[in-house]
Write a structure and sequence with these properties.
329 residues; alpha/beta; Rossmann fold; nine-stranded mixed β-sheet; two-stranded antiparallel sheet; 9 helices; globular; hydrolase; Hydrolase_4; Alpha/beta hydrolase; MAG_DAG_Lipase
Amino acid sequence: MTSPGTRRGWSPDTLLAGYESCTLPGWVPAPGGPSARAVAAGGAAPLLTLVRPPRAPEAPRGVVVHLHGYNDYFFATHLADAFVDAGWAFLALDARRAGRSLRPGDLPHYQGDLREQASDLSRAVAVARRTWPGLPVVVHAHSTGGLVAALWAHAHRARRGADAVVLDSPFLSSERSWVRPLEDGALRALARRRPMQVVASRPSWYAGRMAERWDFDTSLKRPQGVPARAGWLAAVRAGQARVARGLRIRVPVLVARAARSGADVVDGADLDTADTVLDVTTIAALVPRLGADVREVVVDGGVHDLALSRAEPRTAYLSAVRDFLAGVR
C-alpha cells in the first residue's frame, strides 16, 4: 500500500474521512548493522506516516503523539476525539512497515532493531514540537509501541524527549505472551543467520473479535495475525531485557493494563473482558523498573488495547488518562 500523504505536506487521508496524513522519510540504518536487514527486507528506504484529526483545540494544553502496536495502525478516531475534547492536540504515527507506511515488498512490522521505530517516534515528536512550540508533548503508546516508547523515553532522559508517557498494555515481557520465544542465546544466533525465519505464526482471535466491534482495515490489522520473525523477536527480547535491568525515565509515566489475562481462543469468553495477548502480571511486576515517577491503573474488564474495550472499561481508561494529563505541565 502506498502512503496517502506526500513529502511536501499534508493531504486527505484515504483511510479516515476528514483526517489528513503526510509521509516523512525514515532513518536508514547503517549498512551492515543489525537493523540494515529490515531495509533489505523491504528493498527501499523506510517511510513513516503522521495522521492528524480534522479538528484541534483552539488553544491546546499540549500535544499527544500516539504510537500503535504490532499488527496494528491508527484507526481509533474515538481516541483522538477523547484527547481533543480534553484540550489536547493529537498526532498519530504509523511507523515504518505498518499501516499507511506499509509498501509493496515490505515485511509488515519487521524491525531488526527497536531503534528503527524509536527514530520514527523521534520524528513525530519533533513535528509536534515544531507545530505547537512551547507546549508539553505526551507520548501515548500501545503494546510493542509501548516497549519502544519506554526505551525511547529512557534514552532521551538527558535531553528533550516527551514531557510524560502513557503506556497502554506495554509489551514489557514475552513471558506467557502470544509469542513464546526460543532461549535467548539460540534466538540471537538464529537472528544473525536467518533473521527472516518465522519463529511464531498463529491467528489473532483477539484482532478478529475487535473487527466485529470496530471499523478498521483487516489487511492492516490482520485477524490472521502477522508472523513473528527471528530478527524482530530478537530485537524485542533485547529491549525487554533492558527493561528488566531497570530504566531511568525522568518524566511521569502512566502504565495501564487490564485487570486479568485470558486465553486467545476462537469464540473465547475472555476476548471481550481480558487481555488475551499479554500476561498482565508480568506487566505489573516490571512497572517499578521504568522510572521514579510511575503510576499504574488497572482496568477491570479491559482488553489488550484498553482504548478498544467495551464502553465501561474504555471510559474508565480514558478517564484515568485524562486525569493523568491534567497534571502534565
